[in-house]
Amino acid sequence: MADDIIAVKPEIAATARIDAAKRAAMVAAEAQDANAFWRGEMGRIAWMKEPTKIKAVDFTGDVSIKWFADGELNASVSCLDRHLAKRGDQVAIIWEGDDPNSDAKVTYRELHARVCKLANAMRRLGVKKGDRVCIYLPMIVEAAVAMLACARVGAIHSIVFGGFSPDSLASRIQDSECSLLITADEGRRGGRKVPLKANADEALLTCPSIRNVIVAKNTGGAVEMMKGRDHWWDAITEGEGTTCEPEKMNAEDPLFILYTSGSTGKPKGVLHTTGGYMVWASFTHENVFDYRDGEIYWCTADVGWVTGHTYIVYGPLANGATTLMFEGVPSWPDNSRFWQVCEKHKVNIFYTAPTAIRALMRDGEAPVKKWDRSTLRILGSVGEPINPEAWLWYYRVVGDERCPIVDTWWQTETGGILISPLPGAVAQKPGSATLPLPGVKPALVDNEGNILEGATEGNLVILDSWPGQMRTIYGDHARFGQTYFSTFKGMYFTGDGARRDADGYYWITGRVDDVINVAGHRMGTAEVESALVAHPAVAEAAVVGMPHDIKGQGIYAYVTLKAGVEPTEPLRKELVAWVRKEIGPIATPDAIQWAPGLPKTRSGKIMRRILRKIAANETEGLGDTSTLADPGVVQELIDNKVG
Ligand code: PRX
């Protein structure tokens, strides 16, 4: 089944922006002269001063990545101003609320005015170019307005997903010393309220850099407002004008920071700059989704993740698209919500995560089939490997075997899609992200960094830069080089493993580091471990990913309690709740196993390979355990495996 090939249908190739011949020509042109190729693509965004320099990249030494370095622009102008003449009255954002009876449409002209009002208010509060602004908002139009208002005044936004805890919010604000926080009274998800302002108040107890808080009224729930610090959005923007001079930004000035998890330490602030990111967002959104004027495009991600940044806001708006923003969840009020929204808003392009597909698949075809999906043209998948079974269900049941599926592989660090089929050019294989986009040069290397040829499996690296690549880790350029360019010298290491088949197709097999991917949410096992050991009853903890039917991976924690503490069911529940509170509900452990000891080498290093295998029930072939300090603990853990 995994070897099925779904050829590009002739009628799709005939009308697509890019067919196989055009793709081949693009790949060849980029390979021959990258500078000329990207000079040809840079006009897809609006420049105040056109760049004369295109690519200046060095993956060695201190690592320096620059694109369009002498160009000047403002990202909000590309997303708003330049569309006003032609599409001022076109809908830019369709907002669909958590409550199926609430929705809204915002035209480009209205969005421009709202962005300018907020930008003016921000300037009045003293926000200047280069300042960091934290955004902690639910999926409401204000989230897009806040992002673009930051871009307007040259402030660097740092969005924190609304599901993160006060602690997680605080550490992100502290790391980049944000001076302004933009939040809402409450969020809504699946019929429940999320106390955003209350969480923010708790976080701000340890965030002295924050001078002002702007609060959007969303649910109308009661919140505390601190005089002098907290301002209602409506009040502070009320008297402001609907135009605002955009700050002139250099192409390499930062646009945003987004925190993401790595194998060690605290989440790192991935920094993206303005020119290259915007070109990449526009290029990939238009070509991967084969976007056409007037189409309704829906990406179900949250703006708190990179997918929301690039494929709800910057890419679609740069391309003058109508982008749908959804506040709710796929399972509420019932499990047909996605398809009901597709019918209601006549969605043409639909982009979601495998975890949602797997969850909906359980309920069979009826909830899908009862809604009209005839407007759908392209389906997309992102965030984790999609298993062939889920792929085929998506293709057959949701897309009626009519819509190509683009399985898009990329990362927070890559800014946009790197490996994906182009719907009119590349035959699909269920479960494979297929081929790199023009200009992207993946390779597989062995653990010593030797490049492997042909059909093989290895560590996925990218050999050369593309415009949307991250430029640094905020405040820690040394860690940037260390994290991404030192494992395999002179290559960008993705942290993923992959297989390449005889057709050159890539099959991403998952992370090869200590990062796990739970329902498409990326998490460092070290973060969950440090949350656990912060509990007074816990002496030591080791966290690994375990296979999970719906979520792809679940969180499996081995916990050693302090001497004298009894391992009880109430304590297990308490620890689960503790991690949720420390990090957020996305980090809820799926299993906690009491571990009187952990398998360690004689030098004290935890053997995670063994723990991963036990959690996955792969206890045959555990490999050599004779070097362990206490080989007996392994059998003990196997015998008491949870679930
Ligand atoms: O392991 C890969 C997986 O998600 C990781 C990146 O996570 P994040 O930075 O949160 O960005 C997610 C949205 C782009 C990757 O290292 N991943 C992402 N897309 C795919 C994928 N794995 C397999 N197939 C994909 N299409």
What does this structure look like?
The chain has an eight-stranded mixed sheet with strand order 12-11-8-6-7-14-15-24, with helices on both faces. The protein is α/β, with parallel strands linked by helices. Strand 25 and strand 26 form a beta hairpin. The model has no long low-confidence stretch (mean pLDDT 97). It is globular and about 75 Å long. Helix 6 (108-124) packs across helix 7. Helix content is 31%, strand content 23%. Bound molecules: adenosine-5'-monophosphate-propyl ester. Adenosine-5'-monophosphate-propyl ester binds at residues 260, 306-307, 382-385, 407-412, 433, 494-496, 508, 510-511, 517, 522.
The biggest beta sheet is recorded as: 8 strands, mixed
CA-atom Rg in angstroms: 24 Å
Instruction: Give average pLDDT, whole number.
Output: 97
Number of distinct helices: 21
Question: Based on helices, strands and strand pairing, what is the structural class?
Answer: alpha/beta
Question: Strand share of the residues?
Answer: 15-25%
Helix content: 25-40%
Number of strands: 31
Low-confidence stretches: none
Strand order of the largest sheet: 12-11-8-6-7-14-15-24
The dominant shape is: globular
Bound molecules: adenosine-5'-monophosphate-propyl ester
Cα(first) to Cα(last) distance is 29 Å
